[in-house]
Specification:
Blueprint: H1 2-149, H2 153-201, E1 212-216, H3 221-227, H4 232-241, E2 244-246, E3 253-257, H5 261-277, H6 282-311, H7 318-326, E4 331-332, E5 335-336, H8 337-354, H9 359-368, H10 383-393, H11 398-406, H12 417-430, H13 439-454, E6 459-465, E7 470-475, H14 482-499, E8 507-512
Parallel strand pairs: 7-8
Antiparallel strand pairs: 1-3, 2-3, 4-5, 6-7
Helix pairs in contact: 2-8, 4-6, 5-6, 6-7, 8-9, 8-12, 9-11, 9-12, 10-11, 11-12
Length: 521
């Protein structure tokens, strides 16, 4: 144990000796390094001092240059500010000088104005004095005038105003009458021009329809077959067609008599087929007549369609097209109704185009204006009102409906095309040869119509116009009053209705006019 401690102590002593030896060696080397470091540090410090001195000199030079530059800029700014201040002071001085001059000018002007005002006041006083004197003179003058005229100033003023008013009223009436007369002459001239152009541009055929149709036969032997045993065939034909067959001594001919051209056409075509077939007996007659009626209905529809296509009218209801086709087999006072309606349609289109209106609508109204003359059922309505009712039923334009119903003045005219349709209807009906009436009979009827109206007391003149469809009676205003005019119109219409025979209807118009005429010399 002791030996071990001994060796340990020996080891520790050896270690301590080694450490001490190492420290001595390290200390020696460290001192050497410290000396070298001091030498190096002195060199670095000496170099740094030299370099710092150099940098210091450079910075001093730069600072001096910068100071000089800043000082020069500062001097320039001070000079510029001083210059501006001087300019501002000069301007202020100029303004003060101008204000002083202006103030002195204003003071001078005020003094001048005061002088002018004083002068004006003196002149106003003089004018007021003169006005007062003038008013006194006027009052004195008015009193003298009133004394001489025997009227006050107000009364004289009223009389003068009344006289001027009456004179102006008279002159206005004369001027108004002159303007109205000039407008009437121009309107009549233009109307005649338009009507003449429309008639000249519309050349329609004129045909006369009879109430009988002659059916020609190859021989008189066929008459016996048509009559049949004990007349049963002819009775069957008459019963089936509604047409009277006249079998007389006329060679190779049978007369078909009926007021309805459509029935006569059915009878004619049926007889033609029966004679060509050779089988004539009641059963066969009924069969042929029924077949002919159906074919004629198709023909009627075809005629109506061809008519509206030729006239360029579109959108008509099929029933209206059928009625138009039926017009081909209807006559009005001897004038074929379809030809008349076509002519009226063309006249309406021409006249409306001359007036700057729609020719299509006018042509439509002209074609349909007489559709009430071919009704499917008998009615108590006039053909104009019935036609308007049919047009309304099948969706026609209101202006077309009004034109149809008003073309005989049975409805109030509400559209411009209504008088056009009425005028064109009268033109077509009054065209020479259009209707069956001998010229002498026509003239005699017109003369009797005018003579009847002139026979009444107070009637000055009477004119039958529109081919005898209207009678215009001009009465003396001093002898006939307005109330008497209504009574006279009614009495003349009643007398015409009871004493005369005439086609269609006659409109009686009584005109009572009071005229005041003055002549300036």
């Amino acid at each position: 144990m002791d030996q071990a401690v001994y060796y340990i102590i020996i080891g520790l002593i050896s270690l301590a000796a080694g450490v001490a030896a190492g420290k001595a060696i390290f200390a020696k080397d460290t001192k050497k390094q410290i000396d070298e470091a001091d030498i190096q540090a002195q060199k670095i410090i000496a170099e740094a001092e030299i370099k710092a001195e150099t940098i210091k000199k450079e910075k001093n030079l730069e600072a001096k240059e910068r100071f000089v530059q800043l000082k020069s800029e500062h001097d320039r700014e001070i000079l510029e500010k001083n210059r501006k201040i001087n300019d501002a002071e000069n301007r202020i001085k100029q303004k003060e000088l101008a204000a002083t001059q202006k103030e002195s000018a204003l003071e001078k002007q005020l003094k001048d104005n005061e002088a002018i005002k004083e002068n004006l006041n003196k002149q106003i006083e003089v004018v007021n004095q003169k006005r007062t004197e003038l008013e006194k003179h006027q009052e004195e003058h008015m009193r003298r005038l009133e004394k001489i005229a025997g009227l006050t100033a107000e009364e004289a003023k009223n009389q003068l105003i009344e006289g001027l008013k009456q004179e102006a009223h008279t002159q206005a009436l004369a001027l108004q009458q002159e303007i109205i007369e000039d407008a009437r002459q121009k309107a009549n001239k233009e109307a005649r021009k338009i009507i003449i152009q429309s008639i000249q541009r519309t050349a329609a055929e004129q045909t006369i329809e009879n109430t009988v149709t002659v059916f020609n036969l190859e021989s008189d032997e066929i008459k016996g077959q048509i009559i049949g045993r004990e007349g049963r065939n002819i009775r069957a034909i008459e019963a089936a067609t509604g047409v009277d067959l006249v079998v007389d001594d006329t060679p190779e001919a049978i007369i078909l008599s009926s007021f309805d051209p459509l029935r006569r056409e059915i009878a004619r075509l049926s007889l033609q087929r029966l004679v060509a077939d050779g089988r004539i007996h009641p059963a066969r007659i009924e069969e042929v007549v029924e077949k002919t009626r159906k074919q004629l209905e198709e023909q009627v529809m075809e005629i109506g369609e061809r008519t509206v296509i030729e006239l360029g009218i579109h959108g008509l209801h099929k029933e209206l097209v059928r009625i138009i086709g039926k017009m081909r087999f209807r006559s009005s006072y001897g004038q074929n109704l379809l030809m008349h309606s076509r002519e009226v349609a063309n006249l309406c289109a021409t006249m409306s185009a001359e007036l700057g209106m729609s020719p299509k609508l006018a042509k439509r109204a002209g074609l349909l204006h007489d559709i009430g003359k071919v009704p499917d059922e008998e009615t108590e309505l006039s053909h104009a009102l019935l036609g308007a009712k049919l047009a309304e039923k099948y969706g026609e334009h209101p202006s077309v409906i009004n034109a149809i119903g008003a073309h005989h003045d049975e409805m109030e005219m509400q559209y411009v095309i209504s008088p056009i349709v009425q005028a064109c209807d009268a033109i077509s009906g009054a065209r020479p040869g259009a209707r069956r009436e001998i010229m002498q009979q026509y003239l005699q009827r017109i003369k009797e119509l005018e003579t009847l109206a002139v026979s009444y007391q107070g009637v000055e003149k009477a004119y039958a116009i529109q081919a005898g469809r209207e009678l215009r009676v001009i009465v003396e205003a001093d002898k006939v009053t307005d109330m008497d005019s209504d009574k006279l119109s009614f009495e003349i219409a009643q007398k015409i209705q009871t004493e005369m025979t005439y086609p269609g209807q006659i409109k009686v118009t009584v005109i009572r006019e009071k005229r005041a005429v003055n002549i300036a010399r």
